[in-house]
Write a structure and sequence with these properties.
The complex is a heterodimer.
Chain A: E1 9-12, H1 18-27, E2 32-37, H2 50-53, E3 58-61, H3 67-78, E4 82-85, H4 91-95, H5 99-105, E5 110-113, H6 130-136, H7 139-142, H8 157-180, E6 185-187, H9 190-196, E7 204-205, H10 223-226, E8 229-232, E9 236-240, H11 252-255, H12 272-287, H13 291-300, E10 305-307, H14 311-315, H15 323-327, E11 331-336, E12 340-345, E13 350-351, H16 369-375, H17 380-387
Parallel strand pairs in A: 1-2, 1-4, 2-3, 4-5, 5-6
Antiparallel strand pairs in A: 8-9, 9-10, 11-12
Chain B: E1 8-11, H1 20-27, E2 31-36, H2 47-51, E3 58-62, H3 67-78, E4 82-85, H4 91-95, H5 99-105, E5 110-115, H6 130-136, H7 139-143, H8 159-182, E6 186-191, H9 192-198, E7 205-206, E8 209-210, E9 222-224, E10 227-231, E11 236-240, H10 244-253, H11 257-260, H12 268-273, H13 275-287, H14 291-300, E12 305-306, H15 315-318, H16 321-325, E13 329-334, E14 338-343, E15 348-349, H17 367-373, H18 378-386, E16 390-391
Parallel strand pairs in B: 1-2, 1-4, 2-3, 4-5, 5-6
Antiparallel strand pairs in B: 3-16, 7-8, 9-10, 10-11, 11-12, 13-14
Helix pairs in contact in B: 1-8, 6-9, 8-9
The chains are: A alpha/beta, B alpha/beta.
Chain lengths: 391, 401
Amino acid sequence: MAGTLDGLRVLDLSWGIAGSLGVLLLAEQGADVIKVEPPGGDPFRDYSGFAVWNRSRRSVTVDLKHPDGLDAFLKLADDADVLVETFRPGVTDRLGIGFDAVHARNERLVYASCPAYPDGHRLAQRPGYDALVQASSGQQWEQPGWRMGPTFLHVPLPSMAAMFLVPTGILAALVAREETGRGQHVRTSLFQGAQLFTTQIWTYVEHSRPDFYGTMVKAYPPGVHQEMIYEVAGDEWVHTSIMSGLTPIKSQDELVGVPEATDPSRFPLLSAEERAALLPKRRAGYKQRPREELIEEFRENNHAVEAIISMEENLGSTGRPHPQLVANDMIATVEDPEFGTTTQVGVPLHFGTSTTGIKGPRPKAGQHNAEIFGALGYSADQIAKFAGAAR
Amino acid sequence: MKALEGVVLIDFGQYLAGPFAPMIMGDLGADVIKVEPVTGDGMRMVNQPFMGCSRGKRDIGLNLKHELGKEIALKLVAKADIVHHNMTKGVANRLGIGYDACKAVNADVVYCNTYAYGRVGPQSHFGGLDPLFQAAAGLEYEAGPVEAGNKPLYLRFGMTDTANAMLSVVGCLSALYHQRRTGEGQELWTSLLDGAVMLASDAMLADGTPVARPKLDGDQCGIDALYRLYRTQDGWIQIAAVEERHWTGLCAALGLTELADDARFATRAARAEHRQQLESLLAPALAAKTSIVTSRVLDSFGVPNEVPRDMNAGEAVLFDADNVRLGLVAEYEHPIMGVMRQFGNLIQFSETPGHIRGPAPLVGEHTREILDWLGYGESEMEDLKGDGVVYWPDENYGWTV
């Protein structure tokens, strides 16, 4: 069987999170991805996550400021379907690889840009690391933490949203190309990624009813869901859910020994006083129960619940990987050139007939210089001049 | 032309992880028909998220449990390029709109189910909400952070719903592209769980042991002395001194040039090892001036920084002149709530610009035009409404949105 994107050639010039992960989603559906790095390699190679986010692709190194390097790159682009770049607006034009220059040679090319901020925005030339976009987009201030003021988000949310926007734009442009025969310039940004995650909380309404914003309003502690985090025995934590899609057998309160309590689905509707009276009893009940025993009993009674543990533990660091991640084939073993036998997240898309799969670990910088530039007719000596030394 | 011009998408979803994906594909030009229970989408009771995941759709109020309702649903499916929903495992088959039933009336359809947990496995029969998956991906554990002795922290963006939906957009468009090239449709699925763990995909084990990754401090300021929030005289500043030149620039900007020569801070690894010492040296210098003054000084020394902004529940974003000019804000008029604003185009296309048709529809707002499109006559429509098979808004419209 084949992947949905078999035969699609992608040039990945991106650095950082959003571009690499966005490209990963394409690569593991079959796209043939070449990561194009500067001599010496992507400057983020030593950062956490690189080994996962950059797998399933080949790598070349090329000095785009060397005339032969630029030439070799443009030859690669002539055969590409997709190009992905994450430079600040203006940089690719200065390098001679901007949309206009490349599209003039290859009009079928879909050229995707994902800088931190959109071209033309007053912030466009600001530095664009994820946490800076968390700050400038309002995300840090929007998240209540344990003190007043902005909260640093451990999960790099602007990038983690833009990771989806990059392949979405590319694929929509590829669908359009089937009609028009032409590629186009597709642009998104980390800043637009930050907007993606505001859909439940940032709406302006001219005639809002008093409860329009309701339970979604920013509050300390952060809202109804935070209240359903419970400490259990042994300094461990669980998160219970208001609904599970199933009909409960015994109620959650019954299971933790607060039999007089109300149906949990009604809990958000209770008055503040009623909740305040109920919560301490509830918390005391949970505190008595060992985590795994409680989780098992909850699930047997059709309540959805999860342990609050690290992602590493869910990957299996304590020998008990999350069984549903196992069932989803979301825990993968990858032989990495630096780390050895690694456990990483798998491929999150599941097709009925098309296949997906990890094509191999992240490459070394320039690992495929000879193979890829050689196929374009360059000799080893020529390649050495514009590709730099392998790292 | 729009990128997804002519693509018909039938959206049987409710709540968020279903409807959000069709909305995004609608923004790209697809004709999205929301098939909504005559009793209303369960999400309507929480107005804001509902408005945030159904804009631009046409809406038919339809009772799928009625035999005639199912017949109408399958007539819609027959016209579809994509069928999308987030029903719990087994429900779509029970309703007669599972993949096999849809394939029988539309052989090359792309059919997508966004689950909570997944298609098979010990928890696959459960539905569930975003918090479960913030827990299961370790996001709440890291946000607390629990290892610093704090409680776990829920992140109020509800982003695992969105992540699941966006995965399904990627899958649907990929399957559609494949279908356009080969003529073959297929089914696909995603899950909240898989979407969530992608957000923590930097986690990795080597020979079964966690590979270190950055940890948030107990004060929830950052993950490194040079990549964190600091207090200023009047507020906060986020710095991101990632490269070597940023580090030396920071020392110079703060009048702490001796730090640049200090062996404890000579390399990135050394600075990570002496994180707290470095933070205690930088914090007083950053606290001495206001955020704006510090930001300007850091700018002049080439040190990446940003003053965190309070957007006042989004208003400052939705009324920002640059955002409006660049199409990042969508404005439309809702029949009940008047003028509304929400984020606009998340992606710009040079040749096939996006198109946001309008606000989320009322229950059954387009029932009649859709039935007309399927070939039903006026009296048939009235009978269907009288029998409770379909609904369109009338004087008894009972929803708040």
